[in-house]
Amino acid sequence: MNSEFKISTLKGIYTKKEPVSFCLSGRKFIPGQTDIRLKISYLDECLEEICVEKVSAQVSVTLSTSQYPQKADGFGCSCTFYKNGRLCGQASTAFNFINTEKQLIRYGFLSDFAPEITNEEDSLNFLAEFHITHVQFYDWAYRPHQYEGPASVYTDTMGKVIDSECLKRKITGCQKRNMKTLGYGAVYAAGAEYQNMHPDLSLCDMEGTPYNLIDRFFIMDIQRDSPWLNCILTQYRFALERAGFDGIHMDTYGFPKRAFTQREGTLQLVYLEDDFPDLINEVRNVLGKKAVLIFNNVGNWPVAATGAAPQDGIYVEVWSPYHTYSHIRQIILGAAVFDKPVILAAYLAPFRLEKNKGSRRALNAALILHSVITSLGATHLLAGENGAVLTQGYYNDYSLLTDSEREHLKEYYDFQVRYLDIFYDTTLSEISETHTSGENQEYCFSGCKTSADGKAGTVWTIVRENKKRKVIVLINLTSQTDNEWNSGKNDTDPVNQLKIQIPADGRIFRAFKASPDIKQGEAQHVQARQIVNARE
């Protein structure tokens, strides 16, 4: 990895009314003694170049956005460093602008709010460097049924110490970086003290035993006529009006899916998938249109019921039996029908279980999974607090990235933003299984073994198209022995011979290729040769 010179964004996303700000760093970067040239590009087109002499560690540039292609978004920024007129090095990043017509959620997390926290700015800058637009504040409340603590410093149900002043600084820091902040709040969880006072509000099994998680979080009845609903709505209002959040991450546990209420001694069966949409509607009505709402569909359930509810994205926490790359594809395509941003929380255990000294298996797993999720038009909740990644459902037990892992993963996040007008073009249809394999001959691939569903030992071909654009994504799985997304992955051997034949629906105006692993993600033009009435 090249760490002699670095460039990164200082905000997760920008408005067109403000300069775009960058942080410059690296082992050989000397503030005040280095000149830079910034090249701003859109897809394969250079839009403008800007030179800055004797640059400091932070630089802000005003861009000629009025001259950019209309509705274009997702820009590359290549930075060339000079000292005394001599080329010293290169680095790159990407950025995009807030667009109310093109909603996108790049989700990150924060979970450390203790009084002794000293690296607040480092964590916030990491989120900005990775272009995060929305941040989940995990386990920030005093109790699941009472968010406000008894003092400015308090201890939560799991024993974590929280300083409300640290919490406020992180909320404000995110918002200054144009990131939306969401307070974690389980929709039906109450502490033991609340459940003991209101046992009739618990959800129970058929024997009348209350459902709970680790004997600390008791699951309450969320039906419209349940007093619990008013309790949780009061906490959500506190999160926005008093704590200062922009929205709520409405968590669930994935169980129970059916349960019994026990009112006046009578058991009544309830189906939670029927109650969740009503709950989301009620939260929206209470918090208003501007509040950001994300509901957790644990294990892809119950997306069919909640997808149309008034939330800002379709968020799926991925668990077994969804364990293969083809399952990831299935989840994303199923959620995409609701025409909202799709976010997957797919926690990568290899960073915790397989991260042996010198091994790249965890990083390889992250790069492949990120490629899969991005190529199918979704985003991935993975990175956050303290330069770390999530490996399990309890976010406080995150795993730190090494400097090398961080740099490499950043290249993929940059690539995602640089080409977001391709990856997140909602007019594209995913046609891989109907146009590219078996008896389907519209798109032909030769020179190596390919698959349309992410099989190990193949190049995975993902094809999306509309009437004006064809997008072909190639994900190299040829060195892999399994197709499980949550296992460490081998280093990838290059594929040197791959021929692609596509249907000639009309004149090709331009064709280019790009990879986060080649030339810092810059687009390279491709020469296409037309074949008449033949398949080679």
Key structural traits:
about 525 residues, TIM Barrel, Immunoglobulin-like, 3 domains, alpha/beta
Give the helix/strand layout.
Blueprint (H helix, E strand, L loop, with lengths): L5 E4 L10 E6 L9 E8 L2 E8 L5 E4 L13 E9 L2 E10 L11 E4 L9 H10 L4 E4 L15 E3 L5 E3 H13 L3 E7 L2 E2 L1 H6 L5 E2 L7 E2 L3 E3 L7 H15 L5 E5 L6 E6 L2 E6 H16 L4 E7 L4 H4 L7 E4 L7 H11 L6 E4 L4 H4 L7 H15 L3 E2 L2 E2 L3 E2 L9 E2 L2 H16 L1 H4 L5 E2 L1 H4 L8 E3 L3 E2 L7 E7 L4 E7 L22 E3 L10 E2 L10 E2 L11
Parallel strand pairs: 8-9, 9-12, 12-17, 17-20, 20-21, 21-22, 22-23, 29-30
Antiparallel strand pairs: 1-2, 2-5, 3-4, 3-6, 6-7, 10-11, 13-16, 14-18, 15-16, 18-19, 24-25, 25-26, 27-30, 28-32, 30-31, 33-34
Account of the 3D structure:
The protein is of the alpha/beta class. It has twelve helices and 34 strands. The protein has three domains: 6-95, Immunoglobulin-like (Sandwich), CATH 2.60.40.10; 107-185 and 222-254 and 292-423, TIM Barrel (Alpha-Beta Barrel); 429-525, Sandwich (Immunoglobulin-like), CATH 2.60.40.1180. The strands form ten sheets. An eight-stranded parallel β-sheet has the order 8-9-12-17-20-21-22-23. The chain has a four-stranded antiparallel β-sheet with strand order 4-3-6-7. Strands 27, 29, 30 and 31 form a four-stranded mixed β-sheet that branches. It starts with 5 loop residues before the first strand and ends in an 11-residue tail after the last strand.
